[in-house]
Amino acid sequence: MARFELSERWCSWKGVDVIFVAARAAIEAGPFDPPICEVVFDEEYDPITVDTLEEAREHLRHNIVRSMDIIVSHIDEDEARLTLHYSGDRLQLNGYGSDWTRARAAYDAAHAELAGHFGITTFKLPQLPRDTVAETRKRLVIDELEAALEAVDSGLEDP
Q1: How big, in percent rounded to 5, are the helix, strand and coil portions of the chain?
Q2: CA-CA distances (angstroms) from residue 38 to 23, 69, 80, 100, 130?
Q3: What's this model's pTM, rounded to 2 decimal places?
Q4: Among residues 46, 91, 95, 108, which one has the fewest Cβ atoms lying within 10 Å of its Cβ?
Q5: Over the stretch 56-105, which tens digit does the pLDDT of each residue have?
């Protein structure tokens, strides 16, 4: 199967704690075992990198940061990887990898946590209503064809 790649952005994001919940959900759902985690703060200015979500939360408690990138993956990053990029009040969720099942499971778990925090349901198209006009047309055409077929068949029987 082809590579998995999906991305979604949210503006006016305020729930920093939910980002960590989403990262943990992705690690478990991937499953990323052993999980590789890297959190980079202020990458565009003076980057600081930590290796666990706990260290990242502690850093946030004691410091003001402009941006944060949480990267969680399987041991082979090309198989399945998820990133959560938080900057100001914008959050971007990215998932990708060659292992479709694992990458999609991690992305879906993180997406569900993020969307659920604000009561947003995940995107699903509603069932379309029955097209009664098309069904009626189809039935009328079939009735006409059956009548024409009967006329042809009845004409063949008379010598």
Answers
A1: 45, 25, 35
A2: 11, 8, 14, 22, 50
A3: 0.70
A4: 46
A5: 999 989 998 899 999 999 888 888 889 999 998 899 999 988 888 888 88
State residue 31's pLDDT score: 86
Q: Which of 37, 42, 40, 4 is nearest to 22 (CA)?
A: 37
DSSP secondary structure string, 9-52?
EESS---HHHHHHHHHHHHHHTT-SS-EEEEEESTTSS-EEESS
The token pair at 44 is 């565009």
Tell me the helices (H) and strands (E) count for the chain, helix number first.
4, 6
CB 85 within 8 A of CB 58: no
